[in-house]
Amino acid sequence: MRAAWLLLPALAALSAYYVYLPLPGTVSDPWKLMLLDATFRAVQQTCHLIHYLRLSHHLIVLNYLICTFDKLKSVSSEDLNITDAVFDGVEVRIFEPPAKRDERLKRSVVYIHGGGWALASARTSLYHNLCRIMAESLNAVVVSVEYRLVPEVCFPEQFHDALRATKHFLQPDVLAEYSVDPSRIAISGDSAGGNLAAAVCQQLSKDEHLTVRPKLQALIYPVLQAFDFNTPSYQQNMNMPVLPRYVMINYWIDYFNGNYDLAHSLLINNHTALDVGEALSFRGRLNWTSLLPSSFKKNYKPLIQTTGRAEIIQEIPALLDVRAVPLLADNETLQLQPKTYILTCENDVLRDDGVMYAKRLENAGVAVTLDHFDDCFHGCMIFTIWPTDFSAGVQTRNSYIKWLDENL
């Protein structure tokens, strides 16, 4: 009995040590965020062990666990017609509000979910519920794209899936089938889905044969570049839940089907050193010293290597492919982009990706709304249902939907 009384405090202390993380005082629901992060870390470590034992790929196991848990929280709706379909070989989930009296056509949102190009699904409750609320709040047809995931496929297949599904939906006869107004369509996505949404918008803007184009793009804490992993937000939030810097770098490596041995070289920007000729022409498009306001730059300094490893770009040329890194697009492409909404969070390694893209679009003459939240963290918008319900999630979701309602 005495041993048990000694063991319990020890276990409690170890648990507290594992869960606790020093977080900025501005973060909303800090202890709940620590618990979420500790759970996710524990699951990830288990999945990596399974991978190490060669029983299965860690991302397959992780996605299975996420989807299994997530399905338990799905909220249905009697006010929407929710169907699954296939658009040009790509699975989608469609949310259709009932027709209102004297209403002929509805507005629409094509939504591309996040998850590091490897996790989550249009069918899991986190995104099902988000799209359901969007459809109900906006009285809009929402098309949620179920693109294929890493490791089943890698870049550029996710991009191709999102592009094919979107172009199929934009056909006049398909829009007519769903009673959608061709002049009121938005392309949107969060995190890796924001990456795909931005890349799809850029591609659509250059397609001369397209008769219907999106009116808006709305990007939620998007991941937009793999050029510099030492922007101020990457430095400031390198250990921040739910997306530490090393995890984001690993997502990029998985997306490009690269080698994890390159992670450290990417982390210190060896792939874009001054002697890497392929990267030189892009450097001016991602100069955060000029693109970020002083409140974001703080006292951080750029990390620019004089000599690096040119073979990284030769091994993974997608690191500089604008279909994967939309922030590196040229000004001519940016000028063609639709009116844009970008949501960023202070406690997020990807904060500066979104802020820099907003500035580059603004410099190109595009109307941009940058919606920044000082107390929020990466991924928060989908966490609105118990037990992963955060005030930050409701706050960001409401702001995002409000902008769509006012502009779409």
TrEMBL record:
Residues annotated as the enzyme's active site: 191, 348, 378
A GO molecular function held by the record: acetylalkylglycerol acetylhydrolase activity
InterPro entries for the chain: AB_hydrolase_3, AB_hydrolase_fold, Arylacetamide_deacetylase, GDXG_lipolytic_enzyme, Lipase_GDXG_put_SER_AS
Listed EC numbers: 3.1.1.71
Enzyme kind, highest EC tier: hydrolase
Any single Gene Ontology cellular-component annotation: plasma membrane
Keyword Coiled coil: no
Protein name (Swiss-Prot/TrEMBL): Neutral cholesterol ester hydrolase 1
Organism per entry: Pampusana beccarii
